[in-house]
Design a protein that fits this description.
The complex is a heterodimer. By secondary structure, chain A is mainly beta. In chain A, 0% of the residues lie in helices and 47% in strands. In chain A, the strands form 2 sheets. In chain A, strands 2, 4, 5, 6, 9, 10 and 11 form a 7-stranded mixed sheet that branches. Chain A has a 4-stranded antiparallel sheet with strand order 1-3-8-7, with no helix packed on it. The relative contact order of chain A is 0.32. Chain B contains no helices and 12 strands. The chains are: A mainly beta, B mainly beta. Chain A binds chain B through residues 31, 33, 35, 40-45, 48, 55-56, 58, 91, 93, 95, 98, 105-112, and chain B through 4, 33, 35, 37, 43-47, 50, 52, 91, 93, 95, 97, 99-109.
């Protein structure tokens, strides 16, 4: 079990540029989540996948944001035309599906991607 | 919509002492999960302890225990014998049991400092 991994760990970009982040969940987990955390705040939910299906999206996920999980394994989060307000830590988490043991309700987090938009 | 409130932005405790972090939440659901996560500086968030609302017994994990008061919608975390490695941001989180409602709702966090 290698845990949830995210790439890159840090990203600096200029306003208006597009950025893409990758998340690799724990291998046997088929649920994957994206959260955004601004400095000094708790994480806020962005979106959730079960396998390749995107089942829930927050109102925080504007049209400039898109997330995919094409084969039900890794996921990508793309932000188009970045704005300074997009500067935050983007966290990915994964969890097992219902029925896969006592930890099915527990989400395991990756180290995050810290985005700075100049 | 559910909300989670942590009213203590910062707490400090002497090494080896006991500290309690507060968390309250608001929900109309009768069954749900509650969690405490720890986020050390520049490191990833890790689960400290979790509680199923249908269980009356308070969860414990080594030096960590909770005081779950369902009627009061309170879920505090007690850390006994505090260690320097306990210094971190602590987040309380809520999760519904409703199928499809998988997201965690987090509080604002409490920054815990351990004084040697």
């Amino acid at each position: 079990d290698t845990g949830v991994s995210q790439d890159p760990r840090h990203k600096i970009t200029k306003r208006g540029q597009n950025v893409t982040f990758r998340c690799d969940p724990i291998s046997e987990h088929n649920r994957l989540y994206w959260y955004r955390q601004t400095l000094g705040q708790g994480p806020e939910f962005l979106t959730y996948f079960q396998n390749e299906a995107q089942l829930e999206k927050s109102r925080l996920l504007s049209d400039r944001f898109s997330a995919e999980r094409p084969k039900g394994s890794f996921s990508t989060l793309e932000i188009q035309r970045t704005e300074q307000g997009d500067s935050a830590m983007y966290l990915c988490a994964s969890s097992p599906e219902f029925g896969q043991g006592p930890f099915q309700e527990t989400q395991y987090f990756g180290p995050g991607t810290r985005l700075l938009v100049l | 919509a559910q909300t989670v409130t942590q009213s203590q932005p910062e707490m400090s405790v002497q090494e080896a002492e006991t500290v309690t972090l507060s968390c309250t939440y608001d929900t109309s659901e009768s069954d749900y999960y509650l969690f405490w996560y720890k986020q050390p500086p520049s490191r990833q968030m890790i689960l400290v302890i979790r509680q199923e609302a249908y269980k009356q017994q308070n969860a414990t994990e080594n030096r960590f225990s909770v005081n779950f008061q369902k009627a009061a919608k309170s879920f505090s975390l007690k850390i006994s014998d505090s260690q320097l490695g306990d210094a971190a941001m602590y987040f309380c989180a809520y999760r519904s049991v409703i199928q499809g409602a998988q997201k965690l709702v987090f509080g604002q966090g409490t920054r815990l400092t351990i004084n040697p």
